[in-house]
Amino acid sequence: MTIRRIYLTISAFLLTISCMAQEPQALQVRQLTLKNGMTVWLNEDHSQPKIYGAVVVRAGAKDCPGTGIAHYFEHIMFKGTDRIGTTDYAAEKPWLDSISAQYDLLAQTTEAVRRTEIQQKINQLSLKAADYAIPNEFNRLVSRFGGSDLNAATGYDVTYYHNLFLPQYLRQWCHLNSERILHPVFRLFQGELENVYEEKNRSEDAMGGALEKAMRAIFGSHPYAEPILGSTESLKNPRLSEMEAFYRKYYVGSNMGLILCGDLPAEDIEPILEQTFGRLPQGEPIDRGGDKPFSVERKRIDIRLPIPIIKAEALVFQAPTDYEADAQALDLCNQLLSNGKAGLLDSLGNEHVVMAAVAARTAFNDAGVQFMLVIPKIIFGKMKKAERICLEQVERIKQGDFSEETLQQLKRNMLTEMEQDMETIDGRAELMLDAFSQGRSWQDVLDQKERISRLTKQEVVNAARKYYTSNYLTLHKKYGTEPKETLSQPGYEPVKPKNAGAKSAYAKELEQMPVDRRAIRLVDYDRDAHLTRLSPTVELYTKENPINDIFTFTLRYLKGREAVPLTEPLATYLNSIGTDSLKKQQLESAWQRLGIDVRYEAEKKVFSISLTGREEQLEPALRLLNHFLGHAKADKEALKELKDSKKVDYKAFGKTKEEVMPAMLGRVMYGQASPYLLQPSLKEVKKLTSEQLLALFAELQQSACQLFYCGKRPTDDIARLAQQCLPLAKAQQPRPDVYKKTLSYDTPTVFFYHVPKSRQNYILTYEQTAPTPTPQQEATAKLWSQYMGEGMSSVLFQNIREYQSLAYSTRGILRTPSLAQHPNDPLCYVTITGTQADKTLQTMSAIDSLMRHMPMKEENLEAARQEMQNELQTNYPTFREVATHIANHRLVGYEQNPNEQLISHVPTLSAQAIETYHRQYIAPNNRVWIIIGDRKQTDLSAIAKYGKIIELTKEDVYK
What we know:
- The protein folds into 4 domains: 34-290 and 488-511, Cytochrome Bc1 Complex, Chain A, domain 1 (2-Layer Sandwich), CATH 3.30.830.10; 300-479, CATH 3.30.830.10; 530-730, Cytochrome Bc1 Complex, Chain A, domain 1; 749-957, Cytochrome Bc1 Complex, Chain A, domain 1.
- By secondary structure, the chain is of the alpha+beta class.
- The longest helix is centred in the first third of the chain and has 19 residues, at 89-107.
- Helix 20 crosses helix 27 (690-700), helix 29 (775-789) packs across helix 35 (911-921) and helix 30 runs antiparallel to helix 31.
């Protein structure tokens, strides 16, 4: 046996032993089974003052293909129960039963006039039933009892309901979330149905039609071929009786799980769980009709995407699901092909043979697919040639043309990535949710590490041969847009809730439950991370990693896009070049051997280079980084690709509302100082030389910088290593003072941007409001903003979405300058609403009315007050984030945590103070409007009553 072979054998053995070691407590999950068969997973982690809670139902779109019922029902689960969201359910129920019968009748009726009559009848009944409804009471109670980030999602195999909440409200969370399942009520359904219409139209604008066509092509007759939101025909014909049957079948204890991950109490909580979730019916065993066969067929399908110039194809192969034996072997095969560094497909990009090539597996419960995305070089690249070259790289895997050493390196890298995914509450909770929904245990997740460590070369070769066959589907990208289906405004009379802000008897019961009061936990800037000043212009922040031996190290120069817009193309360029002694592929191979992930990023105020890997590789990683800092080499092909990419970006801009919106907002807020107008233009990028970019890189290294290290080593060791390995002596230029003031407008104005074929419009408002030179004034402005537009209990959400069904999404954002640096500068308030084009005028009228005449509901204000405190806790940074969190605040002038002042003032602010703020600083403002959508679908002459219309073009907002 050779010395090299001995090394590899020992390496593999040590890798296996390390994976079999005792898992740290943070990775331990305790499983309970309640008496009704409901599975509970508990994971205790006190690193952040929050708990992630999720109720998981093993049912999704595949269990009601094409109908959208699973997704419909997800929406209904926010409307309350026979005890939540109603003043008198006994009086409300007959109206709701009549509505349900009318929907069943509507689904059986095809004659247009008769359908209209039934829909109007439903509208009349809905207005009567609304007399008893307390809109949004469930959402408000979640906030009132410690919750934030309330949401839900429907997939093909699973539906889940989740939010973050404070540990002292565990009892209330369990009561609320079990009550919502025990007897959900289909109230306010007509309005929610219209919101689902909005969601469908939004999906169509966001290339949802292309995705649906791709899924139909891949899955054929399998239920995964049907859209999660349902077909347009099904959306027009919902049957509440079918939804009720779906609920009875799948929302039962034996088909559901509960995941609680985070700052759980040490005492046994099983009694609480039995008292709450244990009330749910056990249900009957579910027969889903056996396995549904699936196989990929050899064919070619055109998919239209609004992306110009670029050619692209996705080759789709059949693949295993996550719980099949060879799933990890195929994943390792994909790592050999594309791992973002030096894989066989990566090498084609590194050596400029193709623009990009990526291999990845994705899986649902019943079927898996393997994708290979191929993008030839822009302009002269040939699709067939690029595809052939990529398949040749796969053939190398099939023939075993890769080293054992590379295989061991990639296994180590996969394990490092898995450990990172598990180290935080949010990451672990997501893994728990995925595993439970797939019918796997948590031990299965942990055992993946050992399975990966034991994988052999032959198993990887076998997986490549088994799944990368000649039988694959080709999805061919064509320029354009798939045909869009439109659901028009039905013209219902909106709900006029009599009980908005009322409190049900159930809410009063919750208030009587005991709460274990806890002090609010805030980041301590002096204790929670260690600051060492290596020189007047170099700072080192360190934080201990309590979980594993994975370090993160960031070198951050205090000069970003705001000061030097060219740093953005510089970051792209640096990701594509090598050095004077290492070509790009050789450099990436060196990083791969070290197991280091490297990222270059041009941020707003800083330019960052980040390294992540195992502790034992920190010093060689810093030395390799130093080599790159001093010896980066010009690459003509990389520069050409940079210019080609900029051309694609420029040509593509304006095809979707999502990319237009921030550019429009930047133009309105900052005028010609908008970051989208200060960025390098296509013309300027075309003139760029490699020498200019490398000179800028050298200049950056002379800027003041910050170092961030999170790991196991003491601060003195890191300071010594950084000074030995990096050119910190160069970093002497002070941080540039870049600050942009926002614009004020003297006259009402409407800015419009035309996006052809858009089914929805984005409606934004922008206004300046008063400065907040004192902490109390700042707290007043922030509480007003929370009450007005943040969260499901806000004025905007309740009135625009819930009562009038004018939009699927609506929110308000308060933008505040640093009180420490710019206390006398005005604040800005922005609202963002997505609505169907035919509702634009109605939506603008509603927003304008709310901004001028804000309704005050004491219960909703209390929810907003609690939400602010909840979010301060649930947004508490992870151990890897805390140092950057502190440094960012210090950069804008805060030496102590500003939230300390916020917390002291928010509880004392009265409803009168919030109303006074609104009356003085918001109601009388000249409001600027921004409309983004299709000119043909938008009545600009009617909109003109809100101000002078100025239509902007790409040249006005995007350089």
